[in-house]
Amino acid sequence: MGDLPFSASIEAIRASIQEREAGSARPSGQRDPVFSGFTANPKSGGIKAANETSGDPIYSVSQITQIIKNLLDRELPPLCIEGEISNYKASSMGHYYFTLKDDKSIIQAVLFKGKAQYLNFVPKDGMTVRVKGRISVYAARGYHQITVDTMELAGQGDILRMLEERKQRLAMEGLFDQEDKQPLPFFPETVGVVTSPTGAALRDILQITKRRNHKVNVVILPCAVQGNDAAPMIASQIRRANFYKMCDVLIVGRGGGSLEDLLPFSEECVVRAVAESEIPVVSAVGHEIDWALSDFAADMRAPTPSAAAELCTPLLDEIVSGLDRVKNDLIQEMQKKIENKRLLIRNFSKENLELHFRSIEQPYIARFEDAKEILVDNIKERLKELSLRVEKAKITLEAASPHAILDRGYAMVRNKDTGRIIRNATDVSKGSLIEIVPKEGIITARVEETDFLQEENE
User: Which of 114, 165, 189, 361 lies 20 to 30 Å (CA to CA) from residue 139?
Assistant: First the structure.
């Protein structure tokens, strides 16, 4: 349906030019709609009547551009176009600028703020959308574009669908778990940067690092950041930094670009290298609206490489100022305490100090004296008890002493040959020598007769 109006418009242009070349006149007051707004006065910049040599009309660039714009605005009806968003940008005024593409062609598109406010989604690179609007010419640059009136999702683009599937699969493996994230070091000695050695991102990182803290070293691990070879190189440099422990924190990223340009940072080998890194990783891919799967695996995401440099590089002036403040606060606090002590001891003379000391000492001395008296009394009482017990034991021992028994007239009898004590008449026989031990001396005797007193017992 769109080919018929466009063909008719070409014919209209051709007919209008032929009429002018033939000098044919239109009715009074009627103008060629295709050439509306133009005049034949050469001094006013209009269409010249004829080339002095060939007689052909001569048009300026702006004139022919305006002719095409008028033609498209009048002849081409509103169209519905389906394509994939690329190079999406949102202006500060609220307008959206992007490119619609398929596998063969692209067309520029603009969605102004008044229409954009009715969208129920946020456009992103890689989305497949269906837009409706008019084809027009942006005269300042001479290219045709579609001014979008309405836009709706026509299904996710192949790239976004692939990235979403990969994201979900890697998330199920735990590569994006928050509990595995590492904190960034407060004051890194060395910052590693995995990026293109010729890109603007590296220049920004070096400038910001030097400006914020010239004591921080920067190690550059160069790699390609787009193309088929980029992902393996990025992953290899991340692993190299870890193997040789080349830095304290690692920035992995690049400057802005289309979704296709950023794809290496979403490759599985890069995501796994970032997740496995023992060195904390800051992902800084593209601008704030850009994203890659490495953002989810990294310990921290920065909206831009410049922001990553600020996150990884502490501001030296702030650190020095903070240390100075702490030092000054400590000095002031110590001086304050010293002054308070001086004021405290200024109220005491030598005599007052002695009296104060005595007032503190006297209660302790009194308690000591009381405790000493109680201890001495307890010791005396204990000694008295022990003396009584010793005396009782002495009387008991003396009462049981053999000498006391011998004093009462008893004697001890023992066998002279064996020395055994004789307790019974059966212990000796007639003729045995015995010794009788009274209190003093020893009496030796021979047994003449033993009597068992059996008959008396009977």
Answer: 114
